[in-house]
C-alpha cells in the first residue's frame, strides 16, 4: 500500500506574533510518499528510500531526518497510547519542493506531509490535533527549537494562534476573503537556528506593550476583515529589527511592496523570505513584481521567486 501526503509552505510570526501566529498558503508544498511493507526490518521501522530536490543536504538517517523522525514518533505514540504495535516497515520518499532555510516553513511542511501520509497508511488512528504534537517535535530536530507557528498551520491550514504551548492550545482563524499574500524568496539561505540566535534574550516592558498591542489588533483585523487594521498591525518591534540586518535590502523590498499598494510587509518566519499582505489579487501581483525588482536593484544577481495566494 502506498499513500501520498502533501503540506504547504507556512509563514510564521506574521510580523508581531513571534512564535505564536502563523498561516498556511496554498502552494508550493512538500510531498511525502510512504509505502507499507508487511515484513519488518531489523534496523528501523521507517527508512528513507529517496529524497528529491534537497541537493543532498538533508540527513538520510531516519532518526535525524525531520520527515522520518516524526513518523517514528507517531509509531511510538500508537504503541504507548493506542495499543497499536506496528510490526511492518515503511519506506519514505520525500519530494522537497520548498527551498531549505528559506523562512517558508520547509521542515514543518515535510513533517506534516509525512504525518498525514502515515496516519492514512495506518487507517487514521490519530486526529490532526494529535499529529500536530509530532510535527512540532520535528521542528526541534530540524532547527533546535520546537516552535509551532509553522508546524500547526502546516497541519491544520488557516491562521493558527498558539495561545499556550503547555498545554498546547491552538486557535484557528480562517483568513478574510479578500486577503492576498505575496511571498518573495530571494535565493539565499538563512538558518533558523542562526536567525534565532540574534534575537534579544529580554525586552523592555515598553517594547512588549507595543508588540502585544499589535498582536491583538492583527487578530481583531483578521476576524473582522478590517484590511486597514491588518496593515496597521503588521508591525514587529522585536525580531524584525534584528533579522533585517541578515537580509540584503530588507527595508528596500518592504518599501517596494508598500509602494505598490500592499497593506503591510514583514519577514516570513525567520527569513530570508519576505511576505506582504494586499486586499486585491492585482495589488498582490504588483507587490510581487516590485519586491523582485527591489532585490535585483540591490544586487543584480539576487533573483527571487514570487508566489501570490
Ligand atoms: N517563529 C519562528 C522564528 C519561525 O521566527 O524563528 C521560523 O520559521
Automatic annotation (TrEMBL):
Q: Which GO terms describe its molecular function?
A: ATP binding; homoserine kinase activity
Instruction: Give the family from UniProt.
Output: Belongs to the GHMP kinase family. Homoserine kinase subfamily.
Q: Does the keyword Plastid apply?
A: no
Look up the record and name the pathway of this protein: Amino-acid biosynthesis; L-threonine biosynthesis; L-threonine from L-aspartate: step 4/5
State the name under which the record lists this protein.
Homoserine kinase
Summary of the function given for this chain in its UniProt record: Catalyzes the ATP-dependent phosphorylation of L-homoserine to L-homoserine phosphate.
Q: Which GO terms describe its biological process?
A: threonine biosynthetic process
NCBIfam families, per database record:
PRK01212.1-4, thrB
**Where does this polypeptide localize?**
Cytoplasm
Give the organism, scientific name. Answer: Prosthecochloris aestuarii (strain DSM 271 / SK 413)
Residues of the GHMP kinase C-terminal domain: 219-295
Matching Gene3D superfamilies: 3.30.230.10, GHMP kinase, C-terminal domain (3.30.70.890)
PROSITE patterns for the chain: GHMP_KINASES_ATP
Positions that bind ATP: 99-109
